[in-house]
Design brief:
mainly beta; Methylamine Dehydrogenase, Chain H; 4-stranded antiparallel sheet; 1 helix; about 5% helix
Length: about 325
């Protein structure tokens, strides 16, 4: 009965308000030299169907969208930054051969022609929608950067996750200062949709770090995830006190009180190696999780009960809900 109720909830017309896009690679049982299974950008339709859109690409790591035209996506890929227009169908590489191994991308919601990306050799920005690029790594001793985020409320504020910790800039990337997690590789950074001064960051081995002072300083949040690789963070837009964190050998942990207390929500998942998580903004409490080389799983109750949803044999490095573009 519980499964039937969840399936009915997943068919709710509210799901049509947003489209779930994922950076997905089908890797299970793949061997070098074999034909590459469909990989790249996938979307989940309002009817619950998973569709591959655009080109085959096994190395997509993150995505963002143009808030003026949500049908236009930006993809951080192994071979550069890609603009994927028309709901991801038409692709154009916006960077040259001097840039590879992109790890993250962030469009500035205050000035959408400004696009930042993090890559293996630092951070770059375009202020003209990808026509020209500028390096922003001055002040970072070790350049490898896994995560980049723009403060949606405070123009010019950036946060970067590097292999030496979390760095913050107050001048659009000209000067960077260490904000926390010193000595740890930072994997992901997210800002609360309710409280713009509340940020969370995941790390390799160091656990979860939080900032309550607009990203100026971060403190470790106890023993959650210490010794594990934590990969992703998701706030529920319908209830910002509900937060999910995912990691390797860790699974999914959920907080209902803004990060004060956590509970593991792994019952029903085939393994606890989870790459990414995401809350559906159109359906409070609906949570998706990518389980390594198993599938994308979905829960209608914040992870208390999971069912397989699609993407069998996949690794999803990032998932993002994008508002539907106006027709």
């Amino acid at each position: 009965m519980r499964r039937l109720l969840l399936l009915a909830a997943l068919a709710s017309p509210l799901a049509a308000q947003y489209t779930l896009y994922t950076c997905m690679a089908i890797t299970k049982e793949y061997v070098v030299g074999a034909k590459l299974p469909p990989s790249g950008l996938f979307l989940r339709s309002a009817a619950g169907e998973w569709r591959h859109t655009g080109y085959d690409h096994p190395f997509l790591f993150a995505l963002d969208y143009d808030p003026r035209d949500p049908a236009t996506l930006y993809l951080a890929a192994g071979n550069g930054l890609i603009r994927a227009s028309d709901h991801g169908k038409k692709w154009k590489i916006l960077t040259g051969s001097d840039v590879t191994e992109l790890r993250d991308v962030a469009v500035d919601p205050n000035t959408p022609d400004t696009i930042y990306f993090a890559h293996s050799a630092g951070i770059r920005v375009s202020r003209d929608a990808g026509r020209t690029w500028q390096e922003l790594s001055a002040g970072l001793r070790r350049k490898y950067t896994e995560a980049i985020r723009v403060d949606r409320e405070r123009p010019g504020i950036l946060l970067a996750g590097t292999e030496e910790g979390i760095f913050r800039s107050e001048d659009r990337g000209k000067i960077w200062r260490l904000a926390g997690a010193a000595g740890f590789q930072v994997m992901h950074i997210e800002q609360s949709p309710k409280d713009g001064c509340y940020w969370l960051a995941t790390t390799q081995g160091g656990g979860l770090f939080a900032s309550k002072d607009c990203g100026r300083s971060f403190e470790n949040q106890g023993n959650l995830g210490v010794g594990r690789n934590l990969y992703d963070i998701a706030f529920d837009p319908a209830n910002p006190n509900r937060i999910a964190v995912a990691g390797w050998g860790f699974g999914v942990a959920l907080s209902e009180d803004g990060g004060k207390r956590w509970q593991f929500r792994n019952s029903g998942l085939p393994r606890t190696d989870v790459w990414s998580v995401g809350f559906d903004p159109g359906n409070p409490g609906r949570l998706y999780a990518s389980v390594h080389e198993e599938a994308v799983y979905v829960s209608g109750d914040g992870g208390a009960f999971w069912i397989k949803d699609g993407g069998e044999g996949s690794v999803v490095t990032r998932m993002k809900f994008v508002p539907e573009a106006m027709k």
